Amino acid sequence: MRRVLARAFGSLLPLFLIHTSTTSATDAAPLRPLFTAPRAVAPPVIDGELDDPCWQRSARVSYFMTARPRRLAQRQTWTYVCWDSDSLYLAFRCEDPQVGRLSAHAADKDSPALLQDDYVEVHLAPSGEHARFYHLMVNGDGTVYDESEPGDPASWDPDLKIGVSRGSNYWTVELAVEGQEVDRRNPGTSEWGINFGRHATHPEELSRWYPSEDSPGSRQLGRMRLETAAPIAQLVALGDAFGDLGKEGAVASIALVNPTSGKLACEIGARTREPSTKWTEAGPRKIALPPSSQQTVAAPYSVSQPKGNLLHVLVKQNGTITFDSGELPLKDRFLRPRLEGALRRLQSGLSTVTSSKSILPEVRQLREQLGANLQVVNRLSQSVDAPSPPSAGRWLEVDRKLREIEESLHEADITLIILSGYTSAELQGKSMNRQYVIYTRPVFEVAAPDSKPEKHEIRQSLAVFATPGETEPASFCVCSRISLENVTVKASDLTRVSAPSQADTIPAQPTDRNRLKQAFIPARCVNIKVLKYWWQGGTAVEKGPNLVLVPELLVKDDRVSMRGLAPDVPVRVDPLTDIPAGSSKQFWITISVPAEAEPGDYQSTLTFLPPGQPVSRLTLRLRVLPFALPQPRQRLLMEYRHRLELGSGINTVTESRFQMELRDIADHGFHAATVFDSGSSRDQALTLQQKVGMTGPIPVVEGSREPRDLRPLLKRQKRVKGAPLLFYVPEPVKTPAELEGGRGRLSAIRAAGGTTVAVTSPGRTSELHDVLDVPCFDVTDPGFVEYVRDRLANSAGSAVDTHCYTWEAMQENPSVNRLFCGYYLWKTGVFGGLARTYQEVLSGDDPYNDNSGVRLRHRMVTYPSRQGPVTTIQWEAAREGIDDLRYLTQLELLIRAHENLKRPALQSAVVEGKKTLDKARRSIQADYRVTLKSLRPRDYQSLRWQVAQAIMKIMDAMRK
Predict the structure, then answer these.
(1) What's the CA gap between 90 and 80, in Å, rounded?
(2) 873-898 and 937-959 helices cross at what angle (nearest 10)?
(3) What residues pair up with 571 in beta bridges, in sequence order?
(4) How far apart are the first and last CA of the chain?
(5) H-run or E-run covering 683
(6) SS3 at position 275
């Protein structure tokens, strides 16, 4: 055991109670968790040993969760909370089977190195979620990091007593936050915002009591009430260990404590739901707690599916909530819904094979197998309803037999899926010759290896639309019953099958007079790749506790192993892959429509060639729309960290690679890339941006504080008639310390006549208005969404149009890039967007290894190879977002040009166009997180088609 005493300046609790909220718990957000913290009869000895009497009747918070994915942490943490007139007392007991490998290297107070240690943390806001924010971290040796401004430990130094200790499979932190005024307000109405967290290493895992999808400094807090006469509740068990077969079904266990000398009456209720469904509630239980007593109470609940269930438990006293668990994910081991699901699947399968009237011997064998399994499931269902007492052994035996049925059902499902794609002639054949089926999915709605198609997805054609000069993606999938090796797909030329009607044409523009129109599109414009699933450290910016299988890379051969900074990726015209038995594989198509393509309908044949199996053909239909897309007024910039300067760092690249990557960025619709070079290398980088057609403004990273160093660059750019420059400070300018350092750099740039851009927060713009021309806001900043709401509500003027925002583009959700490059940029009306980062390896020398020792994942929206950038679906989504923006721009230009013309047909089309834009605005929420959760990839495409239709209606009315 080791005891640490840390004393600094000021006292925390007096500050807290001056601002304490008196909001009733029942008025708070319904699913923000809440617990009641009791008054301690006697203070604990702060020695790291949790043997003091106060901890026996304190509030106990557990079931910490990870945010991405949202699930219970592998190593759980118990937090104990109580208080008295002198202090707030907190204790953490951290489960860790490898406590001997505990990382506690940070020894100095407020050292950033603590972020790499095992630590516990508490976030506090005395008057709720938007009050002053306090953050405290303690590692396993008692080293402290504290702050009230994110990233600025000098902003808060509380009086603390800290004790730490270690056991055989756990470690503890005990602390007192000292103060004098807890008793001077009515504690029965005191409610604080609070959250607890833990960072574990070996393996790494970040978990919280109230998990947030935001960054570690998130201000999304749960709730704590300071009470003297209320029941104290703690969840003891969630009831997800095969408990659904008991007499009452599944049962959660809650330990209740009455800390008072009187009798307390309370009410307990548990409810469940599946994601995106309504809650299913069981009747509440009323409990009478004798004075100074403790008892464990059962709260029954029901589930309708074995996986994805969420539990919510409430405890009330006299109608006031004193405990709210929030949403807790349950483990995937409920038996009764599995039995019911197996029964439904068997009955449906029998119905399908019977109605097919097929003479195939495989169908007859499947019918017999399904019938036999149906009898087994019926017997299992009868056995679990028997009156004999339930037992773990009995449940495990049911589970074993049910697993056998489920394995056979998986094989049966695959067979039924293949048969559903059979023609009538194939169903009457002598055997199942074709062991696979082709199906389609909306672009960016990926098919995991274990995906199975819905019946409506099995089709023989694929349809897309695009404009001349546009690149448009599409996809199809193959599900196979057997293992297929060396599979390839070939595309034929796209030939026009129907000429455009009068309504589908527009008068030739002066620039079109000498252009040779094409009535076919060659097969080389149809690029087919394989979507590669591979193991990564998570799906967000931070690594998760385990490697996860992620769909990302678009490659010609997904079997090729890629490692290092420049792997060799063989160049192929057609894709080549294997499809394991019982799995799906997704193929990705990008169609580059030539700028001279005639409007109309085109058709190509995609031939699927599996060796040893019958060949299949899929018709690809393309509608080329009768207009070209303009460039938007908004600017899309890419943070590009590669350099031409000589050096040995991993960011130094050859000129050929530099130009190849810049061209890739330009081809995806971005207007510029950041320049990190200096001197002659910087001039060369600017020249290459101009060569690939980037129109800027180009963000140049400049660290000089001398105006004379910048003026030659501005003169040079003016002399060569290059794109305008922005001088970019890549380090955030948010905290007081960052403001002090960043102001000098920004002032020097301004003095030289340069335009400045830096990442800051909306609340800091007034302090930087004299030195910062283009404030860039991180979308994860706590004040960003509120800034957007204010901007939309106030119709901000032209000065605000210099604002932009930035986001991490490497996240494994294509909708992130599509939204921020397109609809969200259009809705907010800001100057532009800065995507981070094209390629950045954070540690080691292998961007394909996401299991490095640092906390953050590699920032890769594309990956390197000797043959050029390896693209990803996130990168393709960025291009689609920019095209969304261009469609919206075209509609706005047409409306602006024709809204004052007094022609009835044209006025009607313009009104419909305005309605389409209004619908798009309503579909995109000011809070981008809501949009990302509510809109599917197909919804973005549907919005685009509605915009395209509105454009063509106005064009049609122009001719009348």
Answers:
(1) 6
(2) 30
(3) none
(4) 88
(5) helix 679-691
(6) coil
> Alpha-carbon distance 377 to 340, whole Å?
9
**Contact indicator for 35, 225 with CB cutoff of 8 Å:** yes
So what's the pLDDT on residue 512? 41
Q: What is the C-alpha to C-alpha distance for residues 176 and 423, in angstroms, rounded to an integer?
A: 74
C-alpha–C-alpha distance, residues 813 and 540, integer Å: 9
The string of pLDDT tens digits covering residues 670-704 is 999 999 998 889 999 999 999 999 999 999 997 65
Going from the C-alpha of 729 to that of each of 150, 636, 732, 749, the distances in angstroms are 19, 17, 8, 10
3-state DSSP: the chain helix, strand, coil percent, rounded to 5? 30, 30, 40
The Cα 949–Cα 917 span in angstroms is: 12
For tokens 């489960």, name the residue: 95
Instruction: For residues 941 and 443, give the distance between their C-alpha atoms in angstroms, rounded to a whole number.
Output: 9
HSE on the CB side for 769, CA within 13 Å? Answer: 7
Alpha-carbon gap, residue 284 to 138, rounded angstroms: 40
Contact present, 197 and 67 (Cβ < 8 Å): no
What span, in angstroms and rounded, lies between the C-alpha atoms of 509 and 97? 73
pLDDT digits (tens, 9 = 90+) for 593-645: 999 999 999 999 999 999 999 999 999 999 999 999 999 999 999 999 999 98
SS3 annotation, 480-537? ECCCEEEEEEEECCEEEEECCCHHHCCCCCHHHCCCCCECEECHHHEEEEEEEEEEEC
- Please tell me the distance from the alpha carbon of residue 931 to that of residue 624, in angstroms, as a whole number: 29
Task: Please compute Rg for the chain using Cα positions.
Answer: 31
Separation of alpha carbons 97 and 850, rounded Å: 25
> What's the CA gap between 506 and 485, in Å, rounded?
48
Closest CA to 442 of 808, 953, 943: 943
Please determine, for residue 233, whether its predicted confidence score (pLDDT) is greater than 80: yes
The answer to whether 685 touches 723, Cβ cutoff 8 Å, is: no
Residue 445: other Cβ atoms inside 10 A: 14
Question: Among 145, 147, 144, 141, which residue's Cα sits nearest to residue 124?
Answer: 147
Nearest Cα to Cα of residue 669 among 406, 445, 886, 934: 886
Q: pTM for the whole thing?
A: 0.76
Structure tokens, 562: 């890629």
Residue 116 DSSP label: G
Task: Report the 3 state secondary structure along 802-826.
Answer: HCEEEEECCCCCHHHHHHHHCHHHH
Per DSSP, the three-state class of 739 is: helix
Q: Which two tokens stand for residue 429?
A: 């054949």
Amino acid at position 131, single letter: A
Cα 955 to Cα 742: distance, rounded to the nearest angstrom? 50
- Which tokens in the block code for residue 467? 């404009």
Residue appearing with tokens 């696979």? 436
- Taking CA atoms, 887 is separated from 4, 947, 950, in Å, by 62, 7, 10
Mean pLDDT lowest among 86-95, 236-245, 343-352, 948-957 = 236-245
Residue 244, amino acid: D
Distance of alpha carbon 249 from alpha carbon 699, whole angstroms = 61
Percent of all residues in the chain with a pLDDT value above 70, rounded to a whole number:
89
Identity of residue 347: Q
| Residues with Cβ within 8 Å of residue 428, at least 6 apart in sequence | 358, 359
The band of 506, judged by pLDDT with boundaries at 50, 70 and 90, is: very low
* Closest CA relative to residue 232, chosen from 74, 54, 392: 54
Residue located via tokens 């109670």: 17
DSSP 277: S
